Amino acid sequence: MSHSSEDLPTVPEARARLVGRAVTLLVTVAMFAMLAGCAKSVTPSAGTEPIPGISPDLIAAAQREGQVVLAGGGHTRTQLEQLKVNFEERFGVELSYVRADSGSTVNAVNSELASGRVNSDVVSLADPISMKKWDDEGILKPVAISNQDQIIDGLDAPDSAAVPFAVVPMGIMYNEAAIPGADVPVTWEQFVQPSDRLTISADPRASGSALAFYTAMVADHGQQWLRSFGATHPLVTDSTLGLNQLVLTGEADYGIPALESGVLTSAKEGEPLRIAYPDGPIPATTLIMSALAAAPHPAAAELLMRYSLSDEFQGILGDGGTRGVLRDLPPPPNAPQIDPARLRPVTVDELADAAQPVRAEFRQEVAE
């Protein structure tokens, strides 16, 4: 789909067109409490090989507790379903979860902590700043992971109780049915050159993934890159969740930041969405998780943490379209092999320092 310069909408016009913004999922303490009270007997799988770092004593202790509750702000629904099925079959311990955005998850867990009635055992977020705050306050509990030294360099913060369980490369989303892959820009500088292609971007003032993406882009390419991007008159939407549909329907030609796992899931369902990685470093965001110090099921929480980083489950994540964080894992089906050295994760310190200026620069250069 192409557009003449006269067809390009202003930001207010673009926002008026984007009436279908993502609706925030409200998570309440009652939902977590309900899940915590619904444990049931699950029969473990037979004939499975032992997993390094997971002892029979730990499994037995977790089975006595009977359940584990995961506040899943960093997991996708597909990842949670994979984890639930395989964890329950493996160990005979029920896994209950609530899937919500990171902000709602933080609010729900904080409410639990304030009430003194903690129901969650493990929490995952796509928000390293909130996780670091909890870590500094002693809310998180470190869990020894036997293969933590196998995590790709740069993805892990060794001094943190939180550990990454997935890495999500970010690139350019396009519709292969409308734009041949050979026509997609091969450098980020080429991407911001004037053209008749219309881009839609998630807003770093509302999206954590977009904040990580633009933090990396401004650091690596300078504010001039952001200014050049703004001059192309992109559409802006709050969340990365809306990019797929808008690119698929032709309302935009490109979407950034494209999250690899989301594009692969759409492609698996038969949609012609694809992701391109321009030359150079690839911005990436990590999904992180940690046990809570006040977990009501501490053994099950420890078991879930160790299983999530095991070679077994990291491979299962890959089969479902998500890149694990361990070295030497094959890429997900239909995903390119990426040299780990090209991955450009954004650290929590970078985000803490750059969040305010990057949001302000985006507002000035792109959204106004």
Automatic annotation (TrEMBL):
Segments for region (Disordered): 323-343
Coiled coil (UniProt feature): none
Keyword Signal: yes
Keywords from the UniProt entry: Signal
InterPro entries recorded: SBP
Presence of the UniProt keyword Signal in the record: yes
Record's protein name: ABC transporter substrate-binding protein
Provenance organism: Gordonia terrae
